[in-house]
Amino acid sequence: MVDWAVTVERLRRERRQTQAQFAESLGTTQATVSRWEAGKQGPDREQSLAITALNQQSGATAPSGADRSWPAPGMADHLVATEVAGPPGRIQDLPIVGHAEAGEDGTFLDNGTITGYAGRPANLVGVTNAYALIVHNSSMRPRYEPREIIEVDPNIPVQPNDYVVVQTTDDRAFIKLLRRRTQRAIVLEQYNPPKEIRFAPEEVAAMHLIVGAHRVYR
C-alpha cells in the first residue's frame, strides 16, 4: 500500500515546489496537498495516477542527494519559505526554512516546507544543515531589519548574549537575543517594543545561533 503522505512530500521536495505549486500541477488545491502530506486524506484514483506519473518522471531526473533540500535539525519539518534572490557573488543554495511574520512577541513561522534558497555566505560553505529565515517585522530593529535574511548555523552551541532562533514546541519561532539560560527558564530580549520573554526549558524545541544576515536583493 502506498504511503501517500511520504510519497507526496518527497516528490514535492524533489521538484522543489511549494504545496500550492505542486497542487497546481495536479489541478487541485494547496489545502488538499496539505491534507495528503499530513496523512489526513489520500488522493483519489485520478490524482494517484497523476502522482505516480510524476514520481516516475522525477525518478529519471531527480537531483542527487547533495542537491536536494533538507530540513534543519531540531526545527519542525513543516516550515515555510519564500523564494528570494541572494546578493551578488553568492551561490544561491542556502535553504530558507521559513519567513518571519509580524506577531505580538516577534517571529512566527507558517506551515509548509523549504521552497526558497538564499545566497550562502563563506562561513557556511560546507555546513550542509545551515538554513536561513526572512524577517518581516521590526521586533529586533536595528539589529535585524524587515526583509533581511537571517543565516543560521545549528552546529554552534549558543551562549548568553548571542542572537538566536528559538523554536517552541507549539511551532512558533522567535529571532531574539539570548540573555540567560537556567534549569528553570530561558530568558530572551527583544528591542521593539523593549521586552523580556521567558520560556520554560520544556517549551523550547530548538535554539540555534544566528551567524549573519543580509538584505534581500531583487
CATH architecture assignment name of the largest domain: Ribbon
According to CATH, the homologous superfamily of the largest domain is: Umud Fragment, subunit A
Which CATH top level class of the largest domain fits? Mainly Beta
H/E element sequence: HHHHEEEEEEEEE
Fraction of residues in helix:
10-25%
- Major beta sheet, strand line-up: 2-1-3-4-9-5-6-7-8
Distance between the termini: 45 Å
Total helical segments: 4
Mean pLDDT: 76
Which properties best describe this structure?
single chain; 218 residues; 434 Repressor (Amino-terminal Domain); Umud Fragment, subunit A; 2 domains; 9 strands
Describe the structure in your own words:
The protein is α+β, with helices and mostly antiparallel strands and 218 residues long. It folds into two domains: 4-64, lambda repressor-like DNA-binding domains (434 Repressor (Amino-terminal Domain)), CATH 1.10.260; 92-215, Umud Fragment, subunit A, CATH 2.10.109. It is built from four helices and nine strands. It has helices at residues 4-14, 19-26, 30-37, 45-61, and strands at 92-99, 116-119, 131-134, 148-153, 163-168, 173-181, 186-190, 195-199, 204-215. Helix 1 crosses helix 4. The longest helix has 17 residues, at 45-61. The N and C termini lie far apart (45 Å).
